[in-house]
Amino acid sequence: MSNKRKEWLLNIATNRWQLNRPKYVGKVAEEIRQCSPKKLEDWIEYYREKVRPNKYEDMRKHIPELTIDHYLELLGLELCKRIHENIRKEIESITDEDCVSYIRELVFNRTFQGYIREKQTVYQRLEDMLGVKIEPAPDIWDRKYNIDFYIKCKNGIIGLQIKPITYQQTPQVHNWRSWLKASHERFKREVGGEVFVIFSVKKDKGVKYIYNEDELVESIRKAMILSGGPA
What we know:
This protein is α+β, with helices and mostly antiparallel strands.
């Protein structure tokens, strides 16, 4: 097994049994800032002298001579023991059917559920910012006009389409609007109301935001006023 694969497996196991929690290794994120090390050796020395995880202190009650280095060695051996006693058996129990089902679940169900959750999060944020009730569009509007949600006004309907995209796709926003223009103009003629495309952008580490949020919200507010205000 390559070192990279070993590290991946060790990371999974460590997280599973939470051996990287403060109880076992101390509040390392806080401690290293307190230390402000210039080089690795500074941090190692500080950790040995200053950091005292709760588990280490508990063990010292029974083994007073226990050093922090010996404690970390015992922690590593405990991790190895759990891997051999648990993960090996679990891996051997996984079948072809399990793997096929998981891949299908990942590609279909989880991807779709994540997509829907993102849309719901965006429209709930718009509800808060606009101070109005945003309704899910009828299925026929979705199919015929590419409308996901709508705002009911006194003199018309404002359609909303939420389009989750990645940060790398933001330069293509004008292309998306062009592709959707025909169906949205048809909505305006047949139903009566402006349509706004809301781009939900996903950046690195899952951070999400609405593209041109302030400008978009202001445009929707103006459209609501022209349509007589919310019903």
